[in-house]
Write a structure and sequence with these properties.
The protein has 683 residues and is mainly α. 34% of the residues lie in helices and 8% in strands. The chain has 22 helices and 14 strands. The protein is globular, with a radius of gyration of 26 Å.
Length: 683
């Protein structure tokens, strides 16, 4: 979890000189840690040196202890290599040949994660979240002992403590499913799981409880934070996470259509189903209302950049001014600047909650010839999902990967440079990569992509060049002389979504621009709202508490105009035409459109892993073989044929329904009598 952690110039006052010296030393370490990501990581000192009686003796100590709890959450932008989440590499959107010991997602899909090693593979574990929950409960139970707390101080501490408790449950639910709800209880030890209750609640009970905790936090949280406090949650962050959880709860796997996965999974003690086997239409309405509440706050909007004379001009007649059409904005910059650092995330109104990003692993995408590792791949399946720039899949004949006779010729490649919105497609680019929608160019590195690396000041060709990934490329394709055998783009594509044209890893002068990661952004709210409305079978009235404390009733049904109004903003922002009534002719048809849209819009944002599960399509989606370009061939002799990626991890990729949830470590199961394991694990 990334919360802005405050610094303080005040000094500790203690009678004992050594205690004062220690405290001032800790303060110095804290200030240093703010710039090194180890935010207030002084928990052991608090536990062993400063006992709870001391922590609750002064406001200053309590605040530092509270922010130390926040430091124990994993960094949300560490979605690839840090042991935080299975993430993109555990899905059909990504593949990398890098060592599986570093990448939790790869380790998971090749069967290296199990109930015996899950704790050693992941710092984010079942037990670690309960330590956070216990510590928040300690604060809530003892904060009245702090004599120098004002009512405003108490409100702030309640806000962040309730949010952290809810966020710990959120993490547990997302990856482990049903959890143990401990309420406000403070157990005698945060080390021994047997101290906790031993019965897992049902999935619905857990979602409801987490949402209740976020609601409580929202009642104390501010609506906005100053840019200097970027990263601290707001009411919108709490409401946004509620909307996400409610959408998941309403989704097919958890709403009456998960019999294949959970039809036999019952609580041992009383035989109650952990996952509801009955469809509840009202859940979709609750999700829609949760989204609409965020929309009604009036604080958030899709990120856009005004058009100028060099902006890309979409081939659509929906030219009304955005958000009613594609007019007035630059579709490429509006999407790409949100991720590559050009737009300051602290001022981005699309970011409902975000963080300064330090762990996105850009170097894994950079070409070897530019001192990168060259292998954080995107699959051909995802490439094929991107629309043409007119919103169709009607590729021109010369944009298809091969001719009818199966041969290549000069008509399959561009013959002149194309420049739009400061993005350049060089002459010689394969036509499959021309005339694609703007999110493709903002997100994908392909053979023939023009890399700028403008901050590099050397003269040895490490900036501004066309990168080839085929067999003719000694350094950047798959080639025995290219250095590390794992440093190549196994699919023929790399993710460039977070890379700025100025970025360079090469010396001299190479720099990486500051990046920002959206934990939750407004586009997700709009698409979630569209999905929830689309799936409603009836009309339901939902009451929610608004930011001002008043109650508002939302009436939700499958209103096509509301669906289009929300969904089409996503399309218009990137220069695509909106959906029509015919696209909404059936619930199933529009669900497929939504699923495709989310795969494109949220590529490498840690959404796909959870989406395919909640939709109940995990097995059919993951069983499709990972494909890419044929790296054994050069561009004129077969490279652009789509083939199965030639790697042992593709051949040994595991798809198993037990992988809907992560396993609870067997040590936890053994310690807590009556604690049920997730289905399929430990059988």
């Amino acid at each position: 979890m990334y919360l802005y952690k405050p610094t303080s110039n005040s000094k500790f006052q203690k009678h004992n000189y050594m205690r004062k010296l220690i405290l001032n030393s800790i303060l110095l370490l804290i200030i240093i840690s703010i710039s090194s990501c180890n935010y207030l990581d002084v928990d052991k000192w608090f536990d062993d040196t400063m006992k709870y009686d001391t922590i609750f003796s002064r406001k200053e100590y309590l605040e530092r202890y509270m922010w130390n709890i926040a430091a124990q959450f994993p960094a949300e932008d560490a979605l690839l290599a840090s042991p935080y989440t299975p993430g993109p590499l555990a899905t059909d959107e990504a593949f990398a040949p890098f060592a599986s010991g570093t990448y939790l997602g790869t380790a998971m899909v090749i069967g290296e994660i199990n109930e015996e090693n899950i704790s050693s593979k992941s710092i984010y574990s079942w037990n670690s979240m309960y330590k956070i929950i216990r510590k928040t409960n300690v604060i809530l139970s003892r904060m009245d002992e702090v004599k120098d707390l004002t009512n405003l101080d108490k409100s702030d501490i309640w806000a962040y403590t309730y949010f952290m408790r809810a966020y710990a449950y959120y993490h547990l639910i997302m990856d482990f499913g049903p959890v143990i709800l401990v309420g406000d209880e403070v157990y005698p030890s945060n080390e021994q799981p047997e101290a906790y209750a031993n019965i897992r609640s049902t999935y619905d009970e857990c979602i409801d409880y987490a949402c209740e905790q976020f609601e409580t936090a929202a009642s104390y949280l501010p609506e906005t934070q100053p840019t200097s406090s970027f990263g601290r949650p707001t009411k919108g962050a709490a409401y946004g996470l509620i909307a996400r959880l409610r959408l998941i709860q309403a989704s097919p796997l958890f709403n009456g259509k998960g019999q294949t996965y959970f039809g036999k999974w019952k609580r041992t003690k009383d035989g109650v189903f952990y996952i509801s086997q009955q469809y509840d239409d009202r859940k979709w309405a609750v999700a829609a209302a949760a989204c609409e509440r965020v929309m009604d706050m009036g604080l958030y909007e899709l990120h856009t950049v005004p058009a100028d004379k060099d902006s890309y001009i979409p081939p659509t007649n929906e030219n009304q001014t955005f958000p009613n059409g594609v007019g007035g904005i630059d579709p490429f910059k509006s999407y790409s600047y949100m991720f590559n650092g050009e737009t300051d995330g602290r001022k981005n109104k699309e970011y409902i909650w975000g963080r300064t990003a330090r762990n996105i692993m850009l170097r894994e995408s950079f070409p070897q010839s530019m001192d990168g590792y060259n292998g954080m791949g995107v699959t051909q399946k995802i490439i094929n999902m991107y629309y043409m720039n007119d919103g169709t899949d009607n590729w021109p004949e010369d944009a298809k990967p091969y001719n009818e006779d199966g041969k290549y010729n000069e008509t399959n490649f561009s013959t002149e440079d194309e420049t739009f919105s400061e993005y350049t497609l060089k002459s010689g680019v394969f036509n499959m990569y021309r005339n694609r929608e703007m999110r493709f160019y903002a997100s994908i590195g392909f053979s023939g992509r023009f890399w700028r690396a403008r901050s590099y000041s050397g003269t040895d060709g490490k900036k501004e060049k066309m990168i080839k990934y085929d067999a003719s490329s000694i350094t950047d394709g798959k080639h025995s002389s290219s250095g590390n055998k794992n440093d190549y783009p196994a699919t023929g594509y790399v993710i460039t979504k977070y890379i700025h044209d100025d970025d360079s890893y090469s010396s001299p002068s190479g720099v990486i621009s500051e990046k920002f990661f959206p934990i939750i952004r407004y586009a997700e709210i709009l698409l979630a709202y569209s999905e929830a409305l689309n799936n409603l079978q009836g009309s339901h009235s939902i009451e929610l508490t608004m930011p001002n404390g008043e109650t508002k009733t939302y009436t939700e049904n499958r209103d096509l105009n509301k669906i289009k109004r929300a969904f089409n903003q996503i399309r218009y922002r990137v220069g695509l035409p909106g959906v029509k009534n015919s696209d909404l002719s059936s619930v199933d048809n529009f669900n497929k459109i939504i699923q495709r849209e989310r795969a494109i819009e949220f590529l490498y944002e840690n959404q796909r892993y959870y989406d395919v599960r909640r939709w109940g399509i995990y097995e059919e989606s993951e069983k499709e073989v990972i494909q890419g370009m044929d790296l054994s061939k050069d561009e004129m002799n077969g490279y652009f044929y789509s083939v199965a990626v030639d790697h042992t991890w593709v051949r040994h990729r595991i798809v198993d329904r037990k992988m809907i949830f992560l396993p609870i470590h067997k040590a936890e199961i053994r310690k807590v009598q009556g604690l049920d394991q997730n289905p399929g694990w430990g059988d």
